[in-house]
Amino acid sequence: MYRLMIDPRELPTGTGVYIFRDEGGRPLYVGKARNIRNRVSQHLKSSDMKERRLCSRASSVECILTRGEMEAALLEERLIKEMTPPFNVELKDDKSYPYLLLTTHQRFPGLFLVRGFKGRQGKLFGPYSGVKDLRVALRYLRALFPVRNCWVLRRRNKPCMEAHLGRCTAPCTGKADEEEYSKNVKDLERFLSGDTAGVLKELREKMRRASEEEKFELAAYYRDVIRGIERISEGASITAPVKDFDLVEASEGGEAVYLLKVRGGRVAGAEPFFLNREGVEGCLAIETFLEEYYSRVSGMPPLILVSQ
After folding, report:
1. For 242-260, how does the pLDDT look when each residue is reduced to its tens digit (9 = 90+)?
2. 1 within a domain of the structure (yes/no)
3. Cα end-to-end span (Å), the chain
4. Which structural domain range is residue 288 located in?
5. What are the tens digits of pLDDT across the range 15-38?
6. Distance CA 169, CA 265 (A)
7. Integer Cα distance of 37 and 265 in angstroms
């Protein structure tokens, strides 16, 4: 039994951020959840060694309710950067959430998991949470939509192991069908933009059959892939006359700008950008951000809303 001073059943069931603290009140871990009570209970029941160490040191849980998942994601990242809790190594060390980068500016685009957007060319999808689930889903995606995962496309005489495993069509050998490759890229781009229903339905059916046949390891694999794909496709719906737009808002002190990306009527990402400019007025902070950010990314939406 762990020594939490609060019964998890007393925690709220709403969306928000939770903070595990030790006996001295020091933050150990910051997380976000659609249902805080359920998520904290999962921590307490987990057999993972990292989770068990966290729970053995935790004495209390602080909860902050938010108006939705995107607000929770923004608050979580801000608190992690401010508090630097020791059990948030995965996010703290990498400084930002992971994205998927599709290098559409290249003749044979590749798909990569990256951190941040600085200096990137191509189309970014995200940000996402749960990088472990995302990596599992990424391996499956490459089998569904075979595109390369090598940063530099060098000429080869023989296909690499990824091609032998069916996760790439080996454009490095010069034998890949460019039209077929382009179709894979377009299908992948549509999937990453939220068209995931068909793939998830097929995966759930495969998981069900594997479980019925008592192939539990295979069923667990499909479960992890489903979880990863749900990470990719999660996002809140937004009712608006325009389906694709960005919403930009500056903090009161002008030290940060918050970007909310909506694609196809769904929230595709939300992220704070810290400008390291103290005392800057909000309007100037937004002007600086707009100039720097949109000069680096491709695929600018037809509408950019600015909240002041």
Report:
1. 678 887 876 655 566 777 7
2. no
3. 49
4. 245-307
5. 889 999 998 889 999 999 889 999
6. 33
7. 29
